[in-house]
Task: structure prediction
Amino acid sequence: MIRLDKDDGLWIVTIDRPDKANSLTAAMLEDLCRIAEDALTGARGLVLTGAGKVFSAGADLDAARAGLAVSPLWERLSGAIARHPGLTLCAMNGTVAGGAMGMALACDLRISVPGAKVFYPVMKLGFLPQPSDPVRLAALVGPSRAKMILMAGQKIPVDEALNWGLVDRIVNSDLLDEARALAADTLAAEAGHARSIKGLIG
Result:
């Protein structure tokens, strides 16, 4: 289940399947795509988070075996997030794994609770990552560390991910309160101004 809460220009999207580590079915992934595309014109800021102790384990295993692991929906989702003209944040309430990494990598900022891990076990599972994910990952952490995750299959603790630049802040207080605080200046600015600054950064 995907839950959407709209809060004065800030859309907060929650992956809400905690009993299955927030793993994604095709229907859930389609919902995420639709929301991210609607947010391009409907939201000034976008926050992605999860319910429970895990952000997302990526594709549901049964759905992955049925073809979801190589679905174009993953690229559609990350592309929509990356094109958003406002500020996008991944509020990692726990570990992020597999295809769900694409959502996190496409966001402008990644904040996390302590104790989370980041991993992308495509080598072990025999799948290729979605095309944009290695590029975005290497841009954040460099090619060697990208290979550490994608080829060596390492689970990176969030404090190490912070040192690498993969995570921007570890939050000991309420995660969504921190996300709202980080989005506040963008929400208060004119949409065109925020878009222009984001465009200058690249």
